[in-house]
Write a structure and sequence with these properties.
By secondary structure, the chain is mostly beta strands. It folds into two domains: about 200 residues, Immunoglobulin-like (Sandwich); about 80 residues, Immunoglobulin-like (Sandwich), CATH 2.60.40. Helices cover about 0% and strands about 45% of the residues. It is built from one helix and 21 strands. The strands form four sheets. Strands 1, 2, 4, 6, 7, 9, 10, 11, 13 and 14 form a ten-stranded mixed beta sheet that branches. A four-stranded antiparallel beta sheet has the order 3-5-12-8, with no helix packed on it. Strands 18-17-20-21 form a four-stranded antiparallel beta sheet, with no helix packed on it. A hairpin with a 6-residue loop joins strand 6 and strand 7.
Length: about 300
Amino acid sequence: MKKRFLLFTIFGAFAYLLFSSNAAGPANISHLNCTGSQASQRNCAGSGCHGVSGPTAVGLYLYAATSSATTVDTILPNQPYTLVILGTNTSLSTHDYGFQASSVSGIGAAQTQAGTWSTSFTNTLGITSLPLSNPTVDLVENQAMLVASSSLPLGTFHDTLYWTAPPTGTSSGPVTFYCTELAVNGNGQADTSDVSGNDSLTVYFNGTSSVRSISENTAINAFPNPFSSQFRLQLNHADAGTYTVRVYNLAGQTLYKQSMQINSSSFETNINTSNWAPGFYGIQVLDKDGAQRIIPLIKQ
């Protein structure tokens, strides 16, 4: 799967942006794309704006609309998908945040809109079309301050967006999702204690990618989810062979890595997480040929 969790890079100072804890997103207010698509400035860090880049970590996961069990790395034309945005920030004791997301195809500043975002949002989200000097791109962003669920660990954020792949014939190249997420201190100002980060996810039309997924016949489950001190990883209907399991946080740091030999179609193992911080994690399961599957988890 073309998926990387990125540590975040500051881009230079840019115009004052009212992406504050009480405001709408940067496209709605200041006509700015901060996702990184179309070679735009990435995130909301900058002079007179929202402080620094990081340590807000962001992860993007794409699912078929008909299943939330495992992620996908290939798509079919005209089919609906669910994009899950996960964020973690441990430097602020807050549930307040904002985000901006885009989906494009192509390269650099010439990237064009790919697919269609659903307009079935709550009144806290909306779509802003941004026809600046680049081709028009639709940006999904907050229309007001967003507050994460109190059931999540403090400083973790979760959003679900609905997206439909482009029709047949309009695009054969990959689609890249870009996202910036901003954790704010809730004081109503754009100041230096607000921190943001970015991530991107590239997916391919079915049959056009050299990146392979583990067979859909193999059921991979991790439970409980959310978990506390440990979780159980289970593989059913798996082909015999050597598998590697890697667990990492949204900043890309590996917390667990283990190779295992599977000789029967079923396999289970417990993974101790007692020393891990609360937040979001990704489980990457790879077979001997490099095919993979990724599952997001949350520690409470």
